[in-house]
Amino acid sequence: MMQSVTIICDGSSRLIDRKRMAGAAAVLISGNLETSSSLDTASNKIPRKFKLVAAALGEATNQQAEINAVILGLKQLKVPCRVKVLTDSRYVIETMKGNFSKRANLDLWKELEKTASRHQIKWEWIKGHSSESSESYQLQKLADRVASQVAEKQDFPLDFKNKIEEKIREVLLLSENSRTK
Predict the structure, then answer these.
(1) pTM of the entire structure?
(2) What contacts 50, CB < 8 A, 6 or more positions away?
């Protein structure tokens, strides 16, 4: 049986010293997230684990950062999985669903397609910067925060990573011992 994983990802590009510096972030959750705020995690018998990853991309556009965020998340999966990818990038979602043509960033699209090919993926758009309080939206805000910080600093300091991981545990109502190593 294939493992189910939800990947919530975001990319960011910031103008810094007249250069577009980018970062990408992904939160991987074992199992599927509920999209409503009424998730009863106490009754959920399957322990959920998570992993937070981020990468400084150097000079890149926001669209390139968004594609890289999905690639970054998918590359964490060591075996074929059923994956729900949540991103606030309509560009990524609509392109991967075949509704938009690939006219730019062809090397990145090729890498994403190759990385995605071994998985069963459901592509879902999630509204960015929403006041919604569901797990998905809270985790999207955290991915956005990490991607923005990494774009700006071109670094993912351990103290910042630890702080965000603690917030993820709070969102998922997890204890320290359930975190993915």
Answers:
(1) 0.87
(2) 27, 28, 29, 30, 165, 168, 169, 172, 174, 179, 180
